[in-house]
């Protein structure tokens, strides 16, 4: 990710640069001490602009409005110690994604920016799904329109299910969306192949020229992200079950996505305050059931 910093306090600018560098979140491509100094050309290469709310000359809200008016489409994260609800509301209305509070705290900066980055990656994954599902075989204009609508519906339903499971913002959610898109692209087949073959097919489909060495690293990284994300989903479902055993989300997903013994085990672990789990996840069952659920939703819509 590329960042641009607009902050009138030099000490805060230096601290933010150091946090971004040490946290390996990306590169700082430029800084400015006032909104008056910044043009579209300055921020054009930035994915995220960190901007102070109160600055001399032109405040953060005015600067955002000006850059948006010039055509900047990146994200804005506002840095502020102001708690005035009207100003905060105005900032959100003009396009701010979220806030970082002053005095700047390293953990808050990293946590906020990681959430923003994960959300951006999720949106990119959804766009990839929509593009990959829009590949048609040269039918008529009406056929293309219907296929495009079906593709968008599938992607939207996939995102809705991940949101219901409480994992839409997890790092592995993008991997899940890509896998669902791949399975949907295989002419509606429900049988999930051997997991490593599935991961390899998804990764080589996204990057055909990837080397064998890099492919193996990416497969391992994908496996780890997916395991963490599925564990998170299990924890969410177990927590819902502890609160309300008759909750529709629990009743629908607990027995379908997981071995129910694992759900019961995780519920007991949460009840006992245990943060780690002894559950052995069946990732293939989870992926198969998840794909079936999303496909069923898109067909019933």
Automatic annotation (TrEMBL):
Domain Response regulatory residue range list: 2-117
Protein origin, superkingdom: Bacteria
Alphabetized PROSITE patterns for the sequence: RESPONSE_REGULATORY (PS50110)
Modification 4-aspartylphosphate, positions: 52
A Pfam family that the UniProt record links to this protein: YcbB
Record carries keyword Phosphoprotein: yes
Keywords on record: Phosphoprotein
GO term, biological process aspect, one: phosphorelay signal transduction system
Protein name: Chemotaxis protein CheY
Taxonomy of the source species: Bacteria, Bacillati, Bacillota, Bacilli, Bacillales
């Amino acid at each position: 990710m590329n960042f641009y910093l607009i902050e009138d306090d030099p000490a805060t600018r230096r601290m933010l640069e150091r946090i971004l560098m040490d946290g390996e979140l990306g590169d700082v491509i430029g800084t400015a001490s006032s909104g008056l100094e910044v043009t579209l050309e300055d921020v054009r290469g930035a994915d995220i602009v960190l901007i102070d709310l109160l600055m001399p000359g032109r405040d953060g809200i005015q600067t955002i409005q000006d850059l948006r008016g010039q055509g900047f489409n990146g994200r804005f994260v506002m840095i502020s110690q102001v708690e005035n609800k009207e100003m905060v509301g105005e900032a959100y209305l003009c396009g701010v994604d979220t806030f970082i509070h002053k005095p700047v705290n390293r953990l808050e900066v990293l946590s906020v920016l990681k959430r923003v980055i994960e959300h951006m990656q999720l949106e990119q994954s959804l766009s990839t799904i929509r593009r990959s599902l829009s590949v048609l075989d040269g039918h008529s204009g009406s056929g293309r329109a219907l296929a495009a609508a079906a593709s968008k519906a599938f992607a939207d339903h996939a995102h809705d299910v991940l949101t219901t499971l409480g994992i839409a913002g997890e790092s592995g959610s993008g991997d899940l969306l890509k896998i669902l898109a791949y399975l949907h692209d295989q002419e509606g087949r429900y049988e999930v192949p051997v997991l490593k073959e599935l991961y390899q097919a998804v990764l080589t489909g996204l990057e055909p020229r990837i080397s064998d060495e890099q492919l193996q690293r990416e497969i391992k990284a994908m496996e780890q992200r997916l395991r963490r994300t599925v564990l998170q989903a299990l924890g969410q479902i177990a927590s819902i079950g502890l609160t309300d055993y008759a909750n529709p989300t629990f009743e629908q997903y607990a027995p379908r996505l997981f071995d129910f013994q694992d759900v019961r085990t995780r519920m007991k672990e949460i009840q006992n305050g245990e943060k780690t789990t002894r559950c052995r996840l069946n990732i293939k069952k989870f992926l198969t059931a998840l794909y079936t659920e999303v496909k069923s939703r898109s067909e019933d819509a």
